[in-house]
Every structure is written in C-alpha cells, then in structure tokens.
Amino acid sequence: MTDLDREQLFENYWLPVENTIAKDKLNDFVLVYLLFKMPDSAAEKNAYQTFKKFVEKNQISNKEILENLKKYSKYYNVFINDDDKNYSKKTNNLLSVFRILKQTTIYPFLFSVFEDYENSIIDENVLNSVLQFFVTYIIRRSICSVSTNSLRGLFKTLYKKNFSKWKKQRSIFKKFI
C-alpha cells in the first residue's frame, strides 16, 4: 500500500470516524464494534490482537474495515448523543433511556437493528417497537435487581440467532408476493 493510498483511506474513512465520534469516546466505539464484528468476545487488553487475527483469517481489506467503521460510527453517535436529526423524537427518546441507564451492552445488537432500518428492511414503527421492548426489559431487570453482566453475551448473539432468520424468511416471502 502506497503512502497516497494510506492518505486517501485516512481522509475518506478514518477522519470522518474521528469527526463523528468524540475522541474520548473513540476507544469505546472501537471496542463495541469489535464485539459486534468478531464471533468471539475480546477482552479490552487484547482486543487489537484478537481483531488483527480475525481480519487476517477472513482476509478483510483495510478499506473494508474502514468503510465499516465509518458506517457504524454514525449509528454509535446516535446511541451516545441526544437528538439526532435523522431519527424521530420517539427514537431519540428511547435511545436516551439506554444512556440514562448506562446500558451500553445493547449497542452491538442495535448496530444490526439500525442497519436494517437504514436498509429499509424494517420501518420506524418496528425500530421503535424493538427499542421499547428492550427498554422495558432492561428496566424490569433493574427493578428486580437482576445482574446485567450476562447481557453482553445475550445482546451479542441475539440478532444473529433470531432476527437474521426472520429477515431471511421475510425476504424470501417478499419474492413470492
């Protein structure tokens, strides 16, 4: 890779990520992204090495990684900041509950949900229904003093185990309609 290629990748992908996510939140974003992308969880101390092995094993290019980071940084920004203009007041209000409860373990799951919304696989009503369901679920767990340490594993695999099957079946169903 030439210096010019590196510079273009930096300007076209990494710089927009830095401009989207505040520098003090960038490390948190990358860890959530790694948790979302990698099949196995990585501890913060060895996340980079684990991700590097994952990239090499799956032969993912630098450009692909940076394109993904740029895309998901936009979603992450919505999760951590108030009143994003691209989403309704209701969506923003529901996301604010996760912030108030300091419930960040749901973010890897929300990456997939927001991607479905952006790709018009689900509409805003479904998006808000999913958010409302998990707000209620997390509040109920909190009221009952149920520990949240197991939620990271749940949210990491929930979409792949359940919602992706529904999406596939729905797309197949649409072909026959």
UniProtKB/TrEMBL annotation:
Lineage, top-rank taxon, reads Bacteria
User: Known PANTHER family for this protein?
Assistant: DUF262 DOMAIN-CONTAINING PROTEIN (PTHR35149:SF2), SLL5132 PROTEIN (PTHR35149)
Entry protein name? Uncharacterized protein
Q: Can you name the source organism?
A: Metamycoplasma orale (Mycoplasma orale)
Q: What is the lineage of its organism?
A: Bacteria, Bacillati, Mycoplasmatota, Mycoplasmoidales, Metamycoplasmataceae
